Every structure is written in structure tokens, then in C-alpha cells.
Amino acid sequence: MTAPGRAPVSAYVRTLNEARMIADVVAAALGVADEVVVVDSGSTDGTQRIAAASGARVIDQPWLGNGLQKRAAEEACRHDWLLDLDADEIVSPDLATEIRALFAKGPPPEAAYALRLVTQPPYGALWADFSVASRVKLYDRRKLRMPEHRAWDQLEMKGARAGRLAGDLIHHSFTGIAQAADKLNKVSTARAREARLKPYPVVICRVLAALPFYFLRHYLLRGLWRAGVYGFAISMNSAYGRWLRDVKMLEAHYRAGRGPGAQAAGKSPR
């Protein structure tokens, strides 16, 4: 039975050493979800204790990979309607109200709903009018599931239509440029390792020429020019993180024996 004032929704969060924000994430999610399930892969900073004290149900699950970890979370939830949250995403009061209203008259008409993912940078105001992403985060697991993949963790829509909600999911995605760079380095390693390897000529072209385009995509198309000098710096960092994936794919080709770098791959200096 759903608690009064909440929607028949289970929110789930994957964690590993997320003590910084997990209490706020759980508290905000419980403003709309009937339960919050935290799937933890071995935290050593008190994340599990903090999450449980904040009202979450905590499950120990060794890391399976991005999509597979979310699959495990899906299976652990009590409700069929799920809210996919990262450990740095806060459900705003407006979004909570909107989700409750969506379920007030019974099951929603769509199989899934896209949310506005709005960045709260560590310095300055909320980026509410630019660099806003749309992510399908609220969905019915009877109709849609996360991919069984180690790297990819976005819903497989398979032709299903997603509705849209107007409330903000506030994303505290980084604490500063050092943490953002470290995060992008780890993500690029996982994506380069798990994604299908691009053909060698394509990778060469991307390594040589794609970096400026990655920068312009963030700075101009996503509007980070509106964030001033800091927006320029974040755009540069994000572009570099994306470019690193290409370089790591180039190294994968070298290890496989393709390209001039292959001759030196795996050999120790004399």
C-alpha cells in the first residue's frame, strides 16, 4: 500500500562512496516516491548507514556494470513504476508535485516520462535556462527495462513514446574541475572498453579533428557561453573528456595490432 502523499513509485539509486549527498537525495525522493532503494557496491565512507538513516532500503550488490547494476535495482523495487536517480540528483518540489499529480487519477497514459535535468554548478546560479538535458527517468518496468550492458545505462525505448514533465531534476554533477575531470576520465575508460570499437580510420579522424567540435557542442549548442568564463572552462573539460574516449579507442586498435603504434604495443623498452 502506498503511503499518503506519495505516488506508487519506487526510486532507486546506485551508490559507491556517495556520503556527500545521499541523505539529501533520499529525502527529496521520499517527497514523492513510496520507497527509495539504494543499491550499494561496497561503500567505505558511511553511505549505507546514511542512506538507511534517511529512510532508504539498502541492498549490497557488487558492481556488475552500469546497465546491469540498474537491472539489479529494478528487480529489487516493490513498485512497477520506477524513478531512476543518480546519487547527485535532487527531485525538486515542483517535480515531486507534478509526479504526484500524474498518478492521482490512476496509472499514467505513457510508458515513460522524460525529466528536465538541470545542472547546479559548484559556483554560481542554477543553469536552468541553458545546458538542460532531457532524460527518461520515470518509467514502467513492465514495458521498458535498462539494457543488460556493462557501459550503457539508458532505457531501451524500442519505439515507445515518452511523455515530458516540466519540473526540474537538479543535478549536482561535479564539485569542481578536478572532480569533473576525474569523473570524465573514468567514464571515457568504461565507454571505450565496453562500446563497439569504431573502425580504425574513423578513430584516427576523430583523434585528429573532433576535439574543437566537441567543445563547440558544449559551449555554443548547449549554451554554456552563458555561464561566462566558468562555462568556457567546463566546456573545454567536457570536450577533452569526450576526446579521451577516442584516444583510448586508438590505443585499443594498437593493442589489437592495427596502426603504426601496434609495433610498440606490449613491448618493454630495452
TrEMBL record:
It holds the Pfam family Glycos_transf_2. InterPro entries: Glyco_trans_2-like, Nucleotide-diphossugar_trans. Keywords: Transferase. The keyword Transferase applies. It comes from the Bacteria. The keyword Coiled coil does not apply. CDD domains: Beta4Glucosyltransferase (cd02511). Residues 12-107 form the Glycosyltransferase 2-like domain. One of its GO terms (molecular function) is transferase activity. Belongs to the glycosyltransferase 2 family. WaaE/KdtX subfamily. This is Glycosyltransferase involved in cell wall bisynthesis. It comes from Rubrimonas cliftonensis.
